[in-house]
Design brief:
It is a single chain. The chain has 210 residues and is α/β, with parallel strands linked by helices. The protein starts with 9 loop residues before the first strand and ends with a helix. It is 45% helix and 11% strand. The protein has 9 helices and 5 strands; from the N terminus they run E-H-H-E-H-H-E-H-H-E-H-E-H-H. Strands 2-1-3-4-5 form a 5-stranded parallel β-sheet, with helices on both faces. The protein has a single domain, classed as SGNH hydrolase (Rossmann fold, 3-Layer(aba) Sandwich).
Length: 210
């Protein structure tokens, strides 16, 4: 993990509502979820590094919507470190369209994700951090669970291919659901509680070595 995060790095977090976490209503623009927790811990533990954390997650996004705003909300910001967590909505639209959005099949998900990464690399972003999509309905929907496992495997494979840090957030959350079922990890089967966001943040910090 040496040199994953360097002095004066700008770290950009991208994704859907789990990353968003109300960022547009928060004074610091970080929201109330795992991004804010990571930013707080980095400041408390590593103030000497002079890191800047930015959140551009947007509720409802699939890989499809992320592509349409990639230039404005990612490439133009010129981060040194880019963290991506996307995929829940690509899968969940299987259970019904929302705002005209449809289910994104595995091959299209992979292609969309690859395009995001290719453009990020071409723009000179030094370090990629890829987080696997997390659970829906606490694993009670077997079909959706299997599809999310498939997406997590895809993200892990892309991380290896692109030399990115892989954050096994889905795997960690599934283990937490099994081993600590008394904890309420999500508020609605998808969006994390404070404990759920803390788990995501801890997984991210461990993966990047901080």
């Amino acid at each position: 993990m040496k040199n994953t995060i360097q002095r004066n790095d700008s770290i950009l977090f991208q994704g859907d509502s789990i990353t968003d976490a109300g960022r547009q209503e928060s004074p610091d623009g970080l929201g109330g979820g795992y991004v804010a927790m990571i930013a707080g811990i980095l400041e408390a533990r590593h103030a000497d590094l002079g890191l800047k954390v930015t959140n551009r997650g947007l509720g409802g996004d699939r890989t499809t919507e992320l592509l349409t705003r990639w230039r404005r909300d990612t490439l133009d910001l010129k981060p040194q470190v880019l963290s991506i967590k996307i995929g829940v909505n690509d899968v969940w639209r299987l259970r019904g369209a929302w705002n005209g959005q449809m289910y994104v099949p595995p091959d299209q998900y992979r292609q969309n994700y690859r395009t995001l990464l290719d453009q990020a690399c071409a723009a000179g972003i030094r370090q990629l951090v890829l987080m696997s999509p997390t659970t829906i309905f606490d694993e009670t929907d077997a079909e959706v669970s299997a599809l999310l496992d498939e997406r997590a495997a895809c993200v892990a494979e892309l991380a290896r291919e692109y030399g990115a840090v892989y954050v096994p957030t889905r795997e960690t959350q599934k283990e937490a659901l099994r081993s600590s079922s008394e904890v309420k990890w999500t508020s609605d089967g998808c969006h994390p509680t404070t404990a759920g966001h803390a788990l995501l943040g801890a997984s991210w910090l461990k993966a990047v070595g901080l």
